[in-house]
Amino acid sequence: MDYSLSLRLVAPEVLLSVGGLILLLAAAWMGDKASKAISIASVAVLVAAAALTAPVLCGGNAGAGTEAFFGQMRADAFAAFAKMLIYAAGAASLMIAPRFFDRWNAMRAEYPVLIVFAVLGMSIMVSAGDLMTLYIGLEMNSLAAYVLAAFLRVDSRSEEAGLKYFVLGALASGILLYGMSLTYGFTGTTSFAGIRAVLESGMSTGALFGVIFVLAGLAFKIAAVPFHMWTPDVYEGAPTPVTTFFATAPKVAAVALLMRVSLDAFGAQSDAWRQVVTFAALASIVVGALGAIGQDNIKRLLAYSSINNVGFILVGLAAATPEGASAMLVYLAIYVAMSVGSFVAVLMLRDADGNQVESITDMAGLSRTSPAIAWCLLLLMLSLAGIPPLFGFWGKLVVFQAAVDAGMIAIATIAIAASVIGAFYYLKVGKVMFFDEPADKVKGPNDWAHWALLVVSTVFISPLGYLLTGWLGGLADKASAALFLAA
Asked: What UniProt keywords apply to this chain's record, in alphabetical order (predicted)?
């Protein structure tokens, strides 16, 4: 094996590893007073990693030439698409953190370092070509995420969120490991290519149980029903910049990993797992929509919204076609922009003392006290609901089109009908902001980083976003083709 070629293929991961270690030493030597400088350096590391990844995506790299370390990792266009979204979400989470933590005097130098190492784990996840690599990346991400959830030590909700996330994450890891063990036991290999080759000749009962347990473990990571129970509590309790990170980057990584495992390793037996994915998709759409209706905390509402949106994404996976995979990637890109914009808007809701305003009731009359934030948040809510002509409608449209083309008309119909339920709670937020008497709670000023991210996200999901459909769809098609070529 040519180790120099393998190292070139995993250059973004090498950069993140070296950069993270250097920043860790800087945090230890310079202390918390250098936290903002380390945050800036961390953003620079992520931008550099994205610069190394972009040519792979634009070139549509695929096939044997993208395999590193005996197929343990795959630096193909599919992985590159997911990495670009992960790096963007990680950078956004770093940009919005200092202002939030300064209010509590809790900004620590280790925060950006944890983000970098979590991103490194996710980068390994989406490039995994073997069950062992998959687990290493997953645990590297998870270990950093547990600490991030409990990062705000002066807030008991953050400590509770960290503990819940750790306990349930450990349970999910155990389920995943058991599934991997069964898969290895009944196929004799941990390589995705090897597993696929064995399953092409048929699937034993033991291997079927292995597939189900692996999918169950990954379902926890994407917060799909029935493994969604941790999401509202963790989203509410974790610091809002961390919640922004959880709602975007790990979601992209887990969905991309689920796609690679399902369509590559288990792709030869898609009928064996399609029913499981279909149930998770429809259940997530319905439970996410119904669960959000009674919420008064905006972060809990967005948590159920993320469950709902995962359901729509899984409809594309149930199609098990290149068109379905491409539609999922388009949806993910739009979802990241909508989630970043929504949580940044929530971060900008502060009272006169700088405290976070999270109650939807306290947002009453926001259109008259902070009209710019109110209009941006309204557009983001309507886009999450999939209401045309906003760009969120396009994400749902391409997923439903892929399902219809795959002959899954009944599933697409049910998903479309259930999406109407979700529109209620998004419209409820708009009604409170624009038609209720002003609560006059939101008064705090905001910095340029928040405004920049909010404006960019809002413009992206506006009708102007449709100008990017050809470009975004082309990149998604290249990534999807690379995934199916690997399979």
From this structure: Cell membrane, Membrane, NAD, Oxidoreductase, Quinone, Translocase, Transmembrane, Transmembrane helix, Transport, Ubiquinone
Q: Sign of the CA dihedral 252, 465, 94, 46?
A: positive
Burial class from Cβ neighbours inside 10 Å (0-12, 13-18, 19+) for residue 428 reads middle
Q: Which residue has the tokens 């905001």?
A: 446
User: In whole angstroms, how far apart are CA 84 and each of 54, 193, 476?
Assistant: 7, 25, 12
- Amino acid occupying residue 434: F
Place of tokens 């048929």: 202
Q: Which two tokens stand for residue 351?
A: 């009272």
Phi, psi of 222 (to 5 degrees): -95, 0
- Tracing tokens 């808007």 back to the chain, one arrives at 345
Q: Give the sign of the dihedral formed by CA 119, CA 129, CA 247, CA 217.
A: negative
Q: What is the dihedral of CA 83, 87, 93, 95, to 10 degrees?
A: -170
Whole-prediction pTM value?
A: 0.93
Q: How many CB atoms lie within 10 A of CB 431?
A: 13
3-class DSSP state of 356: strand
Q: Which of 125, 175, 128, 127 is nearest to 145 (CA)?
A: 125
Query: Which residue type does 167 have?
Result: V
DSSP state of 355: -
CA distance 384 to 461: 9
Averaged over successive runs of 10 residues, the pLDDT of the chain (487 residues) comes to 80 93 92 88 95 90 80 90 95 89 80 94 92 92 90 80 86 90 90 89 85 90 86 87 91 93 85 88 90 86 91 91 92 94 89 79 85 90 89 91 89 85 84 83 78 92 90 92 76
* Separation of CA 114 from chain center: 17
Contact (Cβ atoms closer than 8 angstroms) between residue 459 and residue 387:
no
Tokens of 335: 């979802």
Q: Specify which residues 356 forms β-bridges with.
A: 350
Counts for the chain of helices (H) and strands (E), in that order: 21, 2
Query: With left for phi above 0 and alpha for psi between -120 and 50, is residue 322 left, alpha or beta?
Result: alpha
